[in-house]
Amino acid sequence: MSGRMAFAGAMLMACAGPVAAQTAPVAGPPVRQEPVAAARIAFDKEGETSVAVTGLADRASGRRLTADDPVRAASISKLVVGIAVMRLVEQGKLDLDADVSDRLGWRVRNPAFPDTAITLRMLLGHSSSLTDNVDYVLPLDAEMAAVLADPRAWDAAHPPGRYFRYANLNTPVVAAVMERATGERFDLLMRRLVLAPLGLEACYNWASCTPAAKARAVVQYRKRMPTRDTPEFVAGCPVTPARDGSCDLGQWRAGRNGAMFSPQGGLRISARGLATIGRLLLHEGRLGEARLLSPASVRMLIAPQWTFDGSNGDRQGGFLCRYGLASQVLATRVPDCADDPFGDGRPRAGHAGDAYGLRSGLWLDLERGTGVAYFATDVLDADAGLHSAYTRIEEQLARGTRP
Fold first, then answer.
1. Number of H helices, E strands in the chain
2. How many angstroms separate the CA atoms of 71 and 93, rounded?
3. Is the pLDDT of residue 27 over 90?
C-alpha cells in the first residue's frame, strides 16, 4: 500500500474512542470499471464458509482465476512479517523496544532527533519517523545504511515514537534486523517461521516459490495493462537487479539490504492462503498442530498502538485511523475517519493492500470469530467508495456483494 485492534470485541470497542459518525467520502462523478479478477473467501475458526472467484488470472492466455492462485498481496505482507517478528521475540532473538542499531551494526537515527533510538515497535507501528520520500525499492547491491543516512528519509518535524506516518520503508528495516538476528535470508526465514508451518505455498518475490506456484501467478493490471507478474516477469530476476543489471543472489549479506525481497508488499499468496493466516489469528496463534504464537503475542500484534486524535498522525484521508504492530483496526469512531469498508461499524483487525492496480484485504471480526480475505486486480483509484475512504470494489468485497 503506497498511501491512502485489541483481541476481543469488547477490548476493540474500548479502544474506539468517543462515538462519532464515520466521515463520508467526498461525492464526485462515478467512475466504474469491473476488475480483471476478484476473489473472496469468508471463514471462521473451523474453516472456509464461502468461496467466490471470478475473472482472469492472465488476460493474455485466458487463464481463469482460482482460489489457490498466488497474487502479490501488497501490504498484507506487513502483517505476515509481524507474525514472524513476534515469533522471534518469543524466542528471545528480538526485542521490540531495543535500539535496532545494536542488531544492524550501524547507527539508525533521525538526523533531526539524534538522541532518540529507533525500535522495532516504532518500525512495525509506523511511528519511527521514517518516510517514503526516498525510494524503498532498492537494487540488489544497495546498502540500506546509505539510504537511511539520507535526511530526506526522515520526518524532521516529528520525533520518533510520537507521530504516526505510514511508510513502506519501515518494513525493509525490520527485515534487515530479522536477517541480522538469525543470519538467514529474509524470504527463506519467512518460509521457515510462518509459511511452511502453515502448509502454505507462498513466497516473497518468487525466489522461494515452486515452479508450480509460479505457473499459477495472478497477473496484476492497471487500466488493463499488466503491471506485475506476467509469465515473463515471474521467470525473470526475482528481486530488483543490481545497478549493473546483474541478478546474482549470492551477493546477499544478512542485514545489508532488507528491501531485497519486498517485505512491505511482495508476498505472493492465494486468497485461500490469506484465509489460513486469518484463521491462525482467530485461533490465537495456533492452527491445527502448528503453534506459531502465544495468545499474548497475537494480542500484542493486533492491539492498537496508535489511534488518530485529530493531530497525532497522518490519517490518509480517513483511510487509516488505528494501527497496531503491522496491523490495522477498522471502524474508528472518531471525527474525520472513514475506515469502515464494511459499513456496519464493527471493529475488525487485519490489513489492507494497495499496489500496482490491486486492492486486497484480510479482516477479522474477533468478537464473532469470523473473517474475510479478498483481492481484486485492476481497481481504479477513482472508483470511490460509497461510505468509506476505500474503493467501491473493496466495499463490495468486504460486504460480500461481489464477486
1. 12, 16
2. 31
3. no
